[in-house]
Amino acid sequence: MKKILLIILDGLGDEPIPDFQDKTPLEAATTPFLDSWAEKGACGQVIVQAQGAMPTSEECHFALFGYDPETYKIKRGIITALGCGLKVKKGERANSGL
Questions:
Q1: What per-residue string of b and e applies to 77-95 under the rule 16 or more CB within 10 Å gives b?
Q2: Which GO terms describe its biological process (predicted)?
Q3: Are residues 38 and 54 in the same domain?
Q4: pLDDT value for 98
Q5: Most CB atoms within 10 A, among 1, 10, 56, 71?
Q6: Is 36 found in the same domain as 57?
Q7: Do 90 and 56 have their domain in common?
């Protein structure tokens, strides 16, 4: 079986910034390591929701793994809680202050 590494550079695109001559931080950055990945690997883009929608990171990650974000509503609080090893019981709510 071929080994695959999926790297998700979440939020990397960002918005253009006037101090960067209206380039995004990624466009303005020097990225030799990322450039070498692009040359040696397969790169692509996945659109996970309708054009113009602003999905959350959690919705995008779920969509990448085949879950419909409209059907499976997930929020940052529960992901953060589970990632910290907290036990969240059915009916409990996990909120995030991020």
A1: bbbbbeeeeeeeeeeeeee
A2: glycolytic process
A3: no
A4: 58
A5: 56
A6: no
A7: yes
Per-residue pLDDT at 11? 74
Supply the pTM of this predicted model: 0.57
Domain span at 13: 1-45
- Pair 69, 53: CB distance under 8 Å: no
Instruction: Count Cα neighbours of 21 within 13 Å in the Cβ-side half-sphere.
Output: 3
The pLDDT of residue 56 is 83
**Burial of 76 (C-beta count, 10 Å sphere; 0-12/13-18/19+):** middle
Low-confidence ranges of the chain (pLDDT < 50): none
Widest CA span of the chain, in angstroms?
49
Structure tokens at 70: 């409209």
Q: Domain check: are 22 and 55 in the same one?
A: no
User: In this predicted structure, what is the pLDDT of residue 75?
Assistant: 84
| 23 and 31 Cβ atoms separated by less than 8 Å | no
